[in-house]
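Lecture notes, continued. The same structure-token format from the folding unit now serves as the input rather than the output. Read the line below as a description of shape only.
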């Protein structure tokens, strides 16, 4: 949900700038399920950037961990970990993986990226403890991201020239599919949470895929208007209610 996510190849091909990958400690989030006036806590998440290496070359490792809490821990237990590796040499996404543990079901999604000119190839694999469910090659013109690296694309946009309604398309590799999506700028907003006030840039997330019953504004993101560009609040619409995440100093 933190990275829930066609148009101009110039925008899709935008590089991820190095200054966005400076290790900035751990960003913690409290997740809620919102249904009318009800808003129970649903889980906790943490986001971190680390210096590392991938295949012997300097890289950044971008990690998101999530687990359910409270009532949701008893009803639908989840433990997810997403990792992606970005080359320091050219700021290109090299590899991404997602480990999903739902108690009685465990699966892994692996995405290996390679580049030839303007073309991106993604070797996509999904497997469980007993069998391989997906093993395919996805090919596209321009850059392709995993769900996690797409948040870096948002943080990397040039906000100086933005006007309300501006759209920034991108593609995400998920399983067998390349999903066309776009961030749509909605202007500046103030977000308040537990006594703290943040001045933010507000974006809608449009997803052009049959799996989303409401592709227009399927999600929203509020990004802090400072040099760190921390995601302060995120919202994903569900068939019933919505999921919301708020930035907190610690969990």
């Amino acid at each position: 949900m933190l990275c829930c996510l066609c148009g101009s190849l110039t925008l899709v091909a935008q590089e991820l700038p190095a200054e966005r990958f400076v290790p900035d400690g751990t960003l913690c989030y409290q997740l809620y399920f919102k249904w009318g006036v009800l808003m129970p806590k649903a889980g906790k998440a943490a986001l971190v950037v680390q210096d590392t290496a991938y295949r012997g070359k300097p890289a950044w490792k971008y990690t998101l961990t999530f687990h359910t809490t409270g009532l949701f821990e008893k009803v639908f237990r989840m433990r997810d970990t997403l990792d992606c590796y970005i080359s320091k040499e050219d700021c290109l996404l090299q590899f991404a993986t997602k480990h999903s543990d739902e108690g009685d079901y465990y699966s892994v999604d692996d995405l290996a990226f390679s580049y030839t000119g303007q073309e991106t190839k993604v070797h996509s694999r999904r497997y469980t403890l007993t069998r391989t469910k997906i093993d395919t090659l996805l090919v596209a013109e321009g850059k392709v991201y995993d769900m996690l690296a797409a948040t870096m694309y948002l943080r990397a946009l040039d906000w100086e020239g933005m006007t309300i309604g501006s759209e920034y398309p991108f593609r995400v590799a998920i399983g067998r599919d390349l999903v066309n999506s776009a961030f749509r700028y909605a202007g500046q907003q103030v977000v308040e949470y537990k006594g703290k006030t943040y001045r933010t840039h507000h974006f809608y997330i449009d997803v052009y895929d049959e799996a989303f019953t409401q592709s227009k504004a399927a999600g929203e993101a509020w990004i802090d208007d400072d040099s760190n560009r921390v995601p302060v609040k995120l919202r994903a619409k569900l068939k019933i209610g919505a999921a919301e995440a708020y930035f907190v100093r610690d969990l």
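Point for the exam: The longest helix spans residues 149-156.
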